[in-house]
């Protein structure tokens, strides 16, 4: 059966996350409903590079699925793009070998996290960034972010509810940029991220930047798996899955 | 009674426009409800520089209102900012002379209109721009925009339902810029704009850019009040009231 790979973007505001579940509207459900209509009522299952939580956005999520008919990729993309809801976009699509797997073969992921640091919350950022209106020392946060980079056991930055056994991940880069409109952008690049790991790291970096935790809190947290050295989980609306790379 | 002037911004997505009405949630209602709570249950009426329609946004709307108590402006702003809904923001506030009037004394307004010209509609622009995926000749649109500038009777670009008698307005400037992310930004600056005038002008400029109307369509429309030389009213979600100036 032909296998297709698609890059999709979605505004997560109105979804209870990616993964299908009962009694809640999800990205997977919306896409699978569309595929079933195109496939004459027969179900198709899609596989993402990883789930995203309720309210989290994506600009470069990757999915794959098997479809019983050969279709010209650009026409297939257009059909899916126009027939899914307005808040889901099929950016690109191609037919791939049946050995391709969106999750198992992902080599690198990039996440962005936006924080609105304005005194009053910007109405146009409220769905796409977290609001933090207290003092932040950017230099201190940048020093602290260095302790995230490299290969570590990130168990202390993994929310309960994860079934993953090996919690070692390699984070290649963490960068914090000013966006020029009273905002901060946190960029995370690594070989993979645990359940809520990026949001827990951002919550911890904000607490460090506000001097509620020491600059080396993340170093201590990782070395001793010390939960007291971590901050709260940052809100979902600031998080964007930007890119997934394959070999 | 002390009079206050406030600059407010709001995401119009979830409102049936600015002006209060029965059985629909409006910006005015949300703000007046908050003011009534602060004022011990007694009603306060707010006056905007002009209404905005359902789905239209504002980054620099100006309102004024009389309030029976003297309040420190910044504290008053903070109270209103935090107690109104998340999609309304009180940007700044000051006490003014009781001769100030947000509507009658407005000297200049600036509107922005965003068009997403990408092949597939960007989920993150869907609430903040109109989507137009057909060919557009930017040079032709810029030539056509020149005919808008100056003092004209804009009756042909005024939607029915307006009670304004004098439909002469002076448009100081119309500019069309590329936004760099498959988008166009239309900037309108003038002494005032009629009901749905900006959206009718954008709809006409798009039709000219797509060669469905001649380059001088707006010139002919204005000279002859010829409705056939105008395009459809562009969607509300692309429109932002950016600034209102006073002497």
The low-pLDDT segments of chain A are none
Helix content of chain A: 10-25%
- Number of separate domains of chain A: 2
CATH topology of the largest domain in chain A: Alpha-Beta Plaits
| CATH architectural designation of the largest domain in chain A | 2-Layer Sandwich
Major β-sheet of chain A, in short? 10 strands, mixed
Question: What portion of residues of chain A belong to β-strands?
Answer: 25-35%
Task: Specify which chain pair forms the largest interface.
Answer: A-B, 20 and 20 residues
Total strand segments of chain A? 10
Query: How many DSSP helices of chain A?
Result: 5
Distance between the termini of chain A: 23 Å
Class of secondary structure makeup of chain A: alpha+beta
- Mean pLDDT of chain A, rounded to whole units? 96
What value does the Rg of chain A take, in angstroms?
19 Å
Q: Topology of this structure?
A:
Two copies of one chain form a homodimer.
Chain A lengths: L2 E8 L16 H12 L8 E2 L8 E10 L6 H11 L4 E9 L9 E11 L13 E2 L6 H9 L3 E4 L14 E11 L4 E8 L6 H13 L7 H8 L14 E8 L1
Parallel strand pairs in A: 3-10, 5-6
Antiparallel strand pairs in A: 1-3, 1-4, 2-3, 5-9, 5-10, 7-8, 8-9
């Amino acid at each position: 059966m032909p296998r297709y790979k698609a890059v999709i973007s979605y505004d997560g505001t109105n979804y209870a996350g990616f993964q299908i579940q009962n009694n809640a509207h999800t990205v997977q459900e919306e896409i699978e409903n569309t595929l079933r209509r195109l496939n004459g009522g027969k179900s198709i299952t899609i596989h993402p590079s990883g789930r995203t939580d309720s309210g989290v956005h994506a600009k470069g999520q990757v999915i794959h699925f098997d479809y019983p008919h050969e279709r010209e990729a650009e026409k297939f993309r257009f059909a899916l793009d126009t027939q899914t809801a307005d808040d889901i976009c099929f950016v690109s699509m191609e037919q791939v070998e049946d050995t391709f797997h969106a999750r198992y073969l992902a080599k690198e992921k990039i996440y962005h996290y936006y924080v609105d640091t304005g005194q009053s919350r910007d109405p146009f950022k409220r769905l796409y960034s977290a609001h933090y209106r207290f003092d932040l020392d950017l230099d201190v946060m940048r020093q602290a972010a260095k302790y995230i980079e490299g290969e570590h056991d990130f168990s202390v930055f993994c929310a309960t509810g994860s079934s993953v056994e090996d919690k070692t991940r390699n984070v290649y880069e963490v960068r914090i940029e000013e966006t020029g409109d009273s905002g901060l952008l946190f960029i995370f690049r690594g070989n993979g991220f645990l359940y809520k790991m990026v949001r827990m790291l951002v919550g911890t970096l904000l607490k460090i930047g506000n001097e509620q935790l020491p600059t080396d809190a993340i170093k201590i947290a990782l070395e001793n798996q010390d939960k007291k050295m971590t901050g709260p989980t940052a809100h979902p609306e600031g998080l964007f899955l930007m890119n997934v790379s394959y070999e």
